[in-house]
Design a protein that fits this description.
mainly alpha; Ferritin
Length: 252
């Protein structure tokens, strides 16, 4: 695979995670604990959608197959998506949503900070714009975990139960494939080992403050970059892709 093709695939996978998370958050537009929080979740969803669009536009520019960003987003099957399985997880309850968001936000904070230094000028520019939103997302989810973790016993228990489930989907965020390794050697992609070290330092310290116990000897999901996903992604894509597939020539 040529460098140009690898960068296109790399940009697409970054867009995939943002797109699927955006869809999950969009379903909470009227389900926050307060009206203000419902608005906040909707805005965060739109931030992720904007990031996905930008990555897809760059991937479409690099691809020679004539696909545009809508084709990439809405006209692939689930085996062609490379998003983290973590963002496929359902909106079980508010504690679950906020913990899922925090785990992704902490990753994005360190990942996009590093991507700002990419040798690819377009990826660096996308990251420089996105990091402003990512910092807000990170602060927002962290503050909610503080409230939940140091709040009522019920809130803490829900957070603890969410951690048992979601922790299984964290390790694959840091598992590189051939594209990651090849582009990292060129100074284009992010060094995932470095991001993992920073992420674990912050997350472990924060969970210690909240007295949340990291699950041990737990199943770890893997293979998202090889098209492996939970059954949840198929249901998400059915919702997302129905109109674009039913009316492929429609103009919005």
């Amino acid at each position: 695979m040529e460098t140009k093709e690898m960068i296109a695939a790399y940009a697409t996978r970054l867009g995939d995670t943002s797109l699927i998370l955006s869809h999950r958050l969009a379903k909470l537009y009227a389900s926050g604990p307060t009206l203000e929080e419902s608005v906040a979740l909707t805005n965060i969803s739109l931030d992720h959608l904007g990031q996905a669009t930008t990555f897809y536009q760059y991937a479409a520019k690099l691809n020679a197959n004539g696909l545009n960003e809508d084709d990439i987003a809405y006209r692939r099957n689930e085996r062609e998506y490379d998003n983290f399985q973590l963002v496929e997880q359902p909106n079980t309850d508010f504690a679950f949503v906020m913990l899922r968001q925090y785990l992704v936000d902490a990753f994005n904070y360190h990942y996009y900070s590093a991507l700002c230094d990419s040798n690819d000028e377009t990826l660096a520019a996308i990251a420089a714009k996105a990091i402003k939103e990512v910092k807000y997302h990170y602060r927002h989810s962290r503050e909610w975990l503080l409230r939940l973790g140091k709040g009522t016993e019920e809130a803490y228990n829900k957070l603890d139960n969410a951690l048992v489930h979601l922790w299984s989907y964290t390790k694959e965020m840091f598992t590189p494939d051939a594209i990651d390794e090849a582009l990292a050697s060129l100074g284009i992609a992010v060094d995932l080992k470095s991001v993992q070290e920073q992420w674990e330092r912050d997350v472990f310290e924060f969970f210690s403050e909240l007295k949340l116990q990291i699950p041990e000897k737990i199943f770890q999901a893997k293979g998202c970059k090889e098209g492996n996903h939970t059954e949840l992604l198929g249901h998400i894509l059915c919702e997302m892709q129905y109109l674009p597939r039913a009316y492929p020539d429609a103009k919005w």
